[in-house]
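hiii, so i know i said id send this last week but things got crazy w the move. better late than never?? heres the sequnce for the chain we talked about at the cafe, plus the structure i predicted for it. fair warning i was half asleep when i ran it
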Amino acid sequence: MGGAETRLLVGRDFTEAELALIREVVALFPRLSRTELAATLCEHLGWVTPAGGLKLESCLGLLGKLEAKGEIRLPPKVPMASPRESRPVPSGRTDPPVREVVGKLCELEPLRVEPVRDNEGMWVWNEYVERYHPLGYRRPFGAHQRYFVVSGAGERLGCLLFAASAWALEARDRWIGWTEADRKRRLHLVVNNNRFLLFPWVKVKNLASRVLAQVARRIRSDWQKRYGYGPVLLETFVDGLRYSGTCYRAANWIELGETAGRGRMDRHKEYPSTPKRIFVYPLVRDFRAILCGGGPGGGRGGR
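okay and structure toks below
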């Protein structure tokens, strides 16, 4: 802990900076459930078991203690079957069709991206991603939104997920012009496209860039409806050993450089990963002013 003053809570020492982060996250995401808040905080703090699992029960206990002391205000408790989404098991609903989807993009019109809003859609989405995405399925942390890509004929063509942004990215933060204080206050206004899947039987030129353009036009309003605020910047990471990022460039995303080769939320350099190429997409013209606190909606909550 670098000699900084700490508080012992639920068997773990917390620095004041970590406790300030906890208060910040709870205040910024009042519409998340307690379990979603705990999962987000475990990810931010690197609070995991020796096997790598999130210490959700310990974090929920910590949140309860802080609320009892009047340091935070938690959302009401809601009944939950489990603190985790179980890993999807293929059910047959996501089996490949008898034919490939080929042809011209215009033949799929009116193409649309549809938010996943119910439990049935969520489980099918999870199953598709587990079966067909190279990284498989992982429970999203914090504020998030799933989408299906759907053709005009109602055929599902793919999946997208937007969720919590990376805690710190040198190239991104420098490009925005963020101070550390700005980043802590407004990180929630940046969201990460951490899953993008077009099913392997879908082979239509320019479809991926068209999907990215469509989702960029609606994500602010979807986020506003669900969480009470609108993001102003999208980000994503592309594994350069597997992909070139062509669809992001075609959709006018901006390449900023590479990650430092650490985990997406790794604040303490403890979880090395392969460096990824960073792409961003501004959703509003004055995104820098907002993210740095000088534009409309640029106050503490960005709401």
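btw Residues 80-84, 263-272, 298-303 have pLDDT under 50 and may be disordered. thought thatd interest u
miss u guys!!
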